[in-house]
Amino acid sequence: xxxxxxxxxxxxxxxxxxxxxxxxxxxxxxxxxxxxxxxxxxxxxxxxxxxxxxxxxxxxxxxxxxxxxxxxxxxxxxxxxxxxxxxxxxxxxxxxxxxxxxxxxxxxxxxxxxxxxxxxxxxxxxxxxxxxxxxxxxxxxxxxxxxxxxxxxxxxxxxxxxxxxxxxxxxxxxxxxxxxxxxxxxxxxxx
Length: 191
What we know:
The protein is α/β, with parallel strands linked by helices. 49% of the residues lie in helices and 13% in strands. The two termini are 29 Å apart.
């Protein structure tokens, strides 16, 4: 479970992940942020927060309902507000793929911990997403997934501390790849 208010600073490089703060998984819809996040939280003994569920609870509506009733910009503001309200330790956080559309949200997430981009190609994203009309993806009317990808992909790279390819891997392999990347970063930071 996540810890609030307590910080234990690592004193040495370790072979496995010993991350002090939170781990934030960003990437396109379908990249596995929630699935990888739940398993990663379990293996690290961390808490887990799915920001999409936080938004739904705060707004009293499903993501798609918020988008349909209030529009994309209002949805992005609600997402930003939900993210900026997060305060936790030792937690894996899975924000929605549109979190990078609001600079304040990403600045807050970067303050909370290590941001990991789960990288997928557009072809992989399109192969994984089959319910565009109901999934709650922040897209302007007339936008395609290719449009969204072209806009967001450079932002994921800009905000991420680490990039982990998620193509052609099982869930367990992606979790291990994230753990390795985090451990390598920690070792580099403590040398």
